[in-house]
Amino acid sequence: MAIQTRLIDYTDGDTHLEGYLALDNSLDQPRPGVLIAHAFGGRSDFECEKARLLAQQGYVGFAMDMYGEGRGGDTFEENSALMQPFLDDREKLQKRMTLALSALRQQPEVDDDNLAAMGFCFGGLCVLDLARTGADIRGAISFHGLLTPPGNTADTPIKARILALHGYDDPMVPPQSLLDFANEMTGAGADWQVHAYGNTLHSFTNPEANDPELGAKYDAAADRRSWTSLLNFLEEIF
Known about the structure:
Blueprint: E1 3-12, E2 15-24, E3 31-37, H1 45-56, E4 60-63, H2 76-88, H3 90-105, E5 110-120, H4 122-132, E6 139-143, E7 161-167, H5 175-187, E8 192-197, E9 210-211, E10 216-217, H6 220-237
Parallel strand pairs: 3-4, 3-5, 5-6, 6-7, 7-8
Antiparallel strand pairs: 1-2, 2-4, 9-10
Helix pairs in contact: 3-4
């Protein structure tokens, strides 16, 4: 096994976007591709490492770039300022997700009939929005993602299977949001599932998350369990 990585340039109008691709170059045949949407801080080593881990499993991992030029923020305020325009304009968010998926689909090592998207926090919302548009993907996986619907996809059937991995004590996604999400997914005809981890806050997969007052804290058990659930889910959908 030899994990190879490269940067992939793509654009949204005048915005230059820079994704990070990882694959096992010892495999000859096209293989499933997994788009990885980042948290509100922008594409970081965290998402790139996930791409490499997926490559070790025989997939093509693609850590996308929502903000352009691979940029990210250094503080909570900077991160929020980068994210907010996409929360305010979900069609813009959905377009950028669609472009990232297209960039992944075009890579010669990718089996474009077998694509999925996964994301963390803000990225979880992003991949769910991609699925909500009716995108032709096998699955969408949200890790401690926001579940708020965008408001422009209510009548669109969801083709992707959905997996939401959720900290039950996440203050950003209270229990009522889970019920609303379940009703939304059922109404859209989705094959959906939610795994809720008890006594678990937001950002439970991020070892650097340690701010319980803001409701974000790493949880090693939930991190391990959610990754196992991801791998099981990918095996099922592909």
